[in-house]
Each structure stands twice: as structure tokens, then as C-alpha cells.
Amino acid sequence: MNKITTPLTDEVVRSLRSGDEVVISGIVYAARDAAHKRLCGLIEKGEQLPIPIKGEVFYFVGPTPGRPGRVIGSAGPTTSARMDRFSPVLLAAGLKGMIGKGCRDSAVRDALKKYCAVHFSALGGAGALLSRYIVSAEVVAYENLGAEAIRKLEFKDFPAIVAYDSYGSSVFREVGG
């Protein structure tokens, strides 16, 4: 079990191999489709982003509101492929990691190698359990997107698996994965 802390460095990313089990602590940004689209638009225009991106990790999640006494509700990963068209742009801008579920396309896999980044998989269908590893949550951008607003999450030993490493290896065996 590898314990890693965000933000990620090239050294940490290079130490990870597909199939490695990890626990992640530190700041991670929750961002999904709509937020990705807005961020990429800003990057393409050369404008400043509302959050830091260099060395950071994005979690593809749209959490539910927390019950009384909880910082967040169910927070399970969404399908990573929905972010495929945006991920290479974000990786080129310095993003070092992503957390989601399912396979990524060849352009994302190539960008992970080119920009020394990693993609983690979290257990789909376990959002209530995974929320226990999130110790704080705060909307920091695009509040009007509701569940898809960008949130600054603090992880404490969040469990994941390295699905795609920076060397081009993957835990997926099917065609295209």
C-alpha cells in the first residue's frame, strides 16, 4: 500500500505502477464535465483558472449534500470517459492526477505518458463509504453548477488503485483500455 500526499510531484508519479493500491491524503479538487469544459475554455483563452492546477489531482465526482454532522454526502466516482475530451488539455496545463471509474481513451493515455501523470480508479457504487475519507469540503468555483461545482476536498487515506500509470501501463485488459 502506497501512501501519497497531494500535490503530486513527478517523482511520486513515476514511483507508481498500474495495479498499485494507494491511499491519498491532502487536497483534491472535485470536478466533472461542466467544470472541465469551463476550465479548458479558460486555458484555451490564456486566462487564469479559479483554482490551482499544477501538481493537483481531480476527483470526478458530483457529491450529494452531507447529512447533519457530515462534511459531504455520498461521493462515489463518475465515469472517467466523460472527461476524456478535456483531460489532455488539463494535463498539459499541469494536472498530475485524476480519480474516476472505468477506462480512458488513447489520447488520455498518451497525455498521461507525455506529461508524467497518473489516473486512479476508485470503487464505483461505494459513494457512502468513500465519503468517510473526505474530511472537509468547500465549493471554490462555479457554485451555479450545483453538484458539479468545483469543490476543494481534503482527503485522509482515500483508497484507490493506479489504473493508468505514467509509463503507459493499465489495469484494464479489454480492447481500448
Overview of this structure, please?
There is one protein chain. The protein is α/β, with parallel strands linked by helices and 177 residues long. The chain has a single domain, classed as fumarase. Helices cover 21% and strands 27% of the residues. It contains 5 helices and 7 strands. The protein has a 5-stranded mixed beta barrel with strand order 2-3-4-5-7. The chain is globular, with a radius of gyration of 15 Å. The chain starts with a strand and ends in a 13-residue tail after the last strand.
Strand-helix topology:
Layout: E1 2-5, H1 10-15, E2 21-30, H2 33-45, E3 57-59, H3 87-92, E4 97-100, H4 106-114, E5 118-121, H5 127-130, E6 134-141, E7 150-164
Parallel strand pairs: 1-2, 2-3, 3-4, 4-5
Antiparallel strand pairs: 2-7, 5-7, 6-7
